[in-house]
Amino acid sequence: MIVDTLRVFVTVAEQSHFSKAGELLNLSQPGVSLHIRNLENELGAKLLHRSSKQVRLTEAGTILYKHAKQILAHFEEANQEIQMLQDEVTGSIHIGASFTIGEYILPSRLAEFANQYPQVKLQVTIGNTEEIIGGVRSNELDIGFIEGQAHENDLIVTPYMKDEMIIVSPANHPLSKIVSVEQSMLQNQVWVLRELGSGTRAFSEHYIQEEEISVKRSYVFNSSQGVKEAVASGLGIAMLSRWIVRKELASGEICELPIRHHHLERQFSIIRHKESSSSMATNVFIQKLLVSRKDK
């Protein structure tokens, strides 16, 4: 089908690489090359400049890319309308989510959706906020869930839900016995932080800088689970989403430090690429999420 060949061409153009396009499309590199060669033979024009490191569009390729995107978008719209006539949601969704959302919030939502729409194939990639934004911008992900905001002009950002952030400490920390912690008591503490690029790290650093808190020493982990375990082991204090530490707070493994006159919140957001056509499965999934959010 010509649509399949156009999809291969568009993916190669956007990835600037045959192998990367093949990985995304589950095709071998020779299979990708065959699609491109057949398309060039059909049009009688060279579409790509090939080199050992990357490929670039020719003038003819640039023209075809613009029209191919429109053709694929129209085909997807037609497919959605036909599926709606049959009252059946099918297709696939590649979802990206930052760690807090992907590990603590998304699984239950996905289970509900999969139970209602078993014909939809779901794939989830979990990374930090910067990685998820990059995946959506490069069209490797159909939809992304991030902590905080995205300011890139090529993204559609939809607020999803609020997330309460709290400061936690080891159970035996001196501040854990205080009913209401003053800001000044956070001075010269040891902090456990997420890695750069993490939404949790960005929120923590903003709070520390805004409140002019002096950090005695800091340790960095590339997962919230690592931060949580480090705090429980007595390494220092940390700022984490309440979603992440609910069980540990209930069991007494770690303690919440209630900061006087402060209620800390951040925004969870859904992001999509402006120029990507959303499948019916993706649109239904987002609609279900936003409706369930209102019901809670």
Automatic annotation (TrEMBL):
<keyword id="KW-0238">DNA-binding</keyword>
<dbReference type="Pfam" id="PF00126">
    <property type="entry name" value="HTH_1"/>
</dbReference>
<dbReference type="InterPro" id="IPR036390">
    <property type="entry name" value="WH_DNA-bd_sf"/>
</dbReference>
<dbReference type="InterPro" id="IPR005119">
    <property type="entry name" value="LysR_subst-bd"/>
</dbReference>
<keyword id="KW-0805">Transcription regulation</keyword>
<dbReference type="Pfam" id="PF03466">
    <property type="entry name" value="LysR_substrate"/>
</dbReference>
<dbReference type="InterPro" id="IPR000847">
    <property type="entry name" value="LysR_HTH_N"/>
</dbReference>
<dbReference type="InterPro" id="IPR036388">
    <property type="entry name" value="WH-like_DNA-bd_sf"/>
</dbReference>
<protein>
    <submittedName>
        <fullName>HTH-type transcriptional regulator CysL</fullName>
    </submittedName>
</protein>
<comment type="similarity">
    <text>Belongs to the LysR transcriptional regulatory family.</text>
</comment>
<keyword id="KW-0804">Transcription</keyword>
<feature type="domain" description="HTH lysR-type">
    <location>
        <begin position="1"/>
        <end position="58"/>
    </location>
</feature>
